[in-house]
């Protein structure tokens, strides 16, 4: 930090407006609310929650819908879609699925640089608007090649959203609140997104209207919904705490001071290419990226192929769309419980991830033809598998953000972790090969179980390493994350 302190630093380090805070610095066991009126803190953070979380949920919900409604369109109107644009031949459906993830992965890190430069509201709402237009265009695709190309462009614009949301959330909340907010953000989006299958079926009933098939209307109407969300986002989305105009000076001081006391990184430092090279040498982002990827392999596999799996259990198209919703709705309960445990008992973050990983493995074995034979038991396995994936995606993301400090590294971590989530989508598309559909996607099932078994073991080992490093910091004065008072929460 330079000798000349920025206005943001002065706002954090000066005495608070209620006269209670003399200095704000990170410390392992500091009370981040010391000196503030508890009622004012609660009211301020509730104000932040209502301005930030709902619009992020809406944006990510439409993101999940748009990247996966290819499966909805095909399930609702498969025969026509395959005949009209040729999606039923060979590996064409798999190729269309894959093209989204290539630009999505490549552009994750550059998108974080643009977030600060253009501002949250401009950058994210523009991205949503542009991919909404792409969604509408997909409804008019004349062949599968065009649809694949449009899916790639969709990946370009969606690359900005998820890492941007993860980074934005981490800049507003201290570590003890991060898991709950990430879980609320992600699981709400996942549950709401799954109602898209039912809504999509309703859109497909417009089959023949204005000469367009039902699958085309699914893309068009979801595209229109996306454009509406983009407009709302532009009008309501908030920026980073140091730029927040909806807070008073006193409320901004509370938010920044709590962050500074928790991890000493309330002041923005830009993400540069030299810092990217430096942060790339740390093993933690890559390990968390693996954990995240293993969870998304299952989530994407179920998003794209669950209708087929349910059909194998004897359910028709409508039943498959309806039965897709309950497992995701159920997952909210264990997700909130594990998030509460992770935030309340801060050295349990690895434990809740290991538990969810085991649920995912057991559930995957049950719903596949490797495990249970009875229909009810296999459907119950879907509940466990969805629970494991929907819990671990936000839990891993929050653990990753609590294990580092510095805003630039936080942006890098979010981009790398979410980037590997896109890789998980590619792996799911390849591992769950359409040629193995009749065999219950045996290769994909085994791969999903194996990759999550590695996560369970890896999380346990990382927990041991973090405790060891914390002991070294206490006894020998080792500096963690370039701050003498920082301690890992594992």
Automatic annotation (TrEMBL):
<dbReference type="InterPro" id="IPR011701">
    <property type="entry name" value="MFS"/>
</dbReference>
<protein>
    <submittedName>
        <fullName>MFS general substrate transporter</fullName>
    </submittedName>
</protein>
<feature type="transmembrane region" description="Helical">
    <location>
        <begin position="327"/>
        <end position="343"/>
    </location>
</feature>
<feature type="transmembrane region" description="Helical">
    <location>
        <begin position="148"/>
        <end position="171"/>
    </location>
</feature>
<feature type="transmembrane region" description="Helical">
    <location>
        <begin position="411"/>
        <end position="432"/>
    </location>
</feature>
<dbReference type="Pfam" id="PF07690">
    <property type="entry name" value="MFS_1"/>
</dbReference>
<keyword id="KW-0813">Transport</keyword>
<dbReference type="GO" id="GO:0016020">
    <property type="term" value="C:membrane"/>
</dbReference>
<feature type="transmembrane region" description="Helical">
    <location>
        <begin position="123"/>
        <end position="142"/>
    </location>
</feature>
<feature type="transmembrane region" description="Helical">
    <location>
        <begin position="215"/>
        <end position="237"/>
    </location>
</feature>
<dbReference type="InterPro" id="IPR036259">
    <property type="entry name" value="MFS_trans_sf"/>
</dbReference>
<keyword id="KW-0812">Transmembrane</keyword>
<feature type="transmembrane region" description="Helical">
    <location>
        <begin position="376"/>
        <end position="399"/>
    </location>
</feature>
<dbReference type="InterPro" id="IPR020846">
    <property type="entry name" value="MFS_dom"/>
</dbReference>
<feature type="transmembrane region" description="Helical">
    <location>
        <begin position="287"/>
        <end position="315"/>
    </location>
</feature>
<feature type="transmembrane region" description="Helical">
    <location>
        <begin position="444"/>
        <end position="465"/>
    </location>
</feature>
<keyword id="KW-1133">Transmembrane helix</keyword>
<feature type="transmembrane region" description="Helical">
    <location>
        <begin position="183"/>
        <end position="203"/>
    </location>
</feature>
<feature type="transmembrane region" description="Helical">
    <location>
        <begin position="52"/>
        <end position="73"/>
    </location>
</feature>
<dbReference type="GO" id="GO:0022857">
    <property type="term" value="F:transmembrane transporter activity"/>
</dbReference>
<feature type="transmembrane region" description="Helical">
    <location>
        <begin position="93"/>
        <end position="111"/>
    </location>
</feature>
<feature type="transmembrane region" description="Helical">
    <location>
        <begin position="350"/>
        <end position="370"/>
    </location>
</feature>
<keyword id="KW-0472">Membrane</keyword>
<feature type="domain" description="Major facilitator superfamily (MFS) profile">
    <location>
        <begin position="55"/>
        <end position="471"/>
    </location>
</feature>
């Amino acid at each position: 930090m330079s000798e000349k302190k920025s206005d943001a630093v002065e706002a954090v380090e000066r005495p608070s407006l209620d006269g209670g805070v003399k200095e704000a610095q990170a410390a392992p066991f500091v009370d981040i609310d010391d000196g503030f009126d508890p009622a004012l803190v609660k009211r301020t953070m509730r104000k932040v929650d209502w301005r930030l979380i709902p619009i992020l949920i809406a944006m990510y919900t439409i993101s999940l819908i748009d990247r996966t409604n290819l499966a909805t369109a095909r399930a609702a109107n498969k025969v026509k879609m395959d005949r009209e644009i040729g999606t039923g031949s060979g590996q064409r459906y798999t190729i269309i699925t894959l093209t989204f993830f290539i630009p999505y992965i490549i552009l994750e890190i550059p998108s974080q640089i643009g977030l600060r430069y253009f501002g949250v509201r401009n950058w994210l709402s523009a991205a949503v608007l542009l991919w909404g237009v792409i969604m509408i265009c997909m409804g008019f695709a004349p062949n599968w090649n065009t649809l694949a190309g449009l899916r790639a462009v969709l990946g370009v614009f969606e690359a900005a959203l998820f890492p941007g949301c993860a980074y934005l959330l981490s800049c507003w909340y201290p570590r003890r609140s991060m898991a709950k907010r990430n879980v609320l953000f992600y699981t709400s989006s996942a549950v709401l997104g799954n109602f898209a299958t039912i809504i999509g079926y309703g859109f497909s009933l417009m089959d023949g209207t204005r000469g367009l098939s039902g699958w085309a209307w699914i893309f068009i109407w979801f595209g229109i919904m996306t454009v509406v969300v983009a407009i709302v986002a532009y009008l309501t989305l908030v920026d980073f705490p140091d730029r927040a105009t909806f807070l008073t000076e006193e409320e901004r001081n509370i938010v920044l001071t709590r962050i500074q006391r928790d991890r000493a990184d309330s002041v923005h430092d830009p993400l540069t290419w030299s810092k990217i090279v430096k942060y790339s040498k740390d093993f933690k982002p890559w390990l968390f990226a693996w954990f995240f990827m293993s969870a998304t392999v299952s989530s994407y596999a179920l998003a794209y192929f669950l209708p087929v799996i349910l059909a194998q259990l004897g359910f028709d198209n409508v039943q498959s769309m309806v039965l897709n919703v309950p497992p995701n709705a159920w997952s909210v309960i264990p997700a909130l419980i594990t998030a509460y445990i992770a935030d309340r008992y801060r050295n349990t973050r690895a434990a809740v991830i290991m538990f969810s990983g085991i649920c995912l493995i057991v559930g995957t074995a049950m719903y596949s033809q490797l495990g249970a034979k009875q229909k009810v038991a296999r459907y119950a396995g879907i509940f466990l598998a969805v629970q494991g994936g929907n819990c671990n995606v936000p839990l891993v993301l929050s653990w990753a953000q609590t294990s580092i400090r510095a805003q630039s590294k936080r942006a890098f971590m979010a981009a790398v972790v979410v980037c590997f989530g896109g890789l998980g989508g590619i792996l799911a598309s390849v591992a769950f090969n359409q040629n193995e559909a009749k065999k219950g996607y045996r290769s994909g099932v085994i791969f999903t179980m194996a990759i999550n078994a590695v996560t369970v073991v890896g999380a346990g080992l990382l927990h041991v390493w973090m405790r060891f490093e914390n002991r070294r910091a206490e006894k020998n004065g080792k500096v963690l994350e370039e701050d003498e008072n920082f301690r890992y929460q594992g």
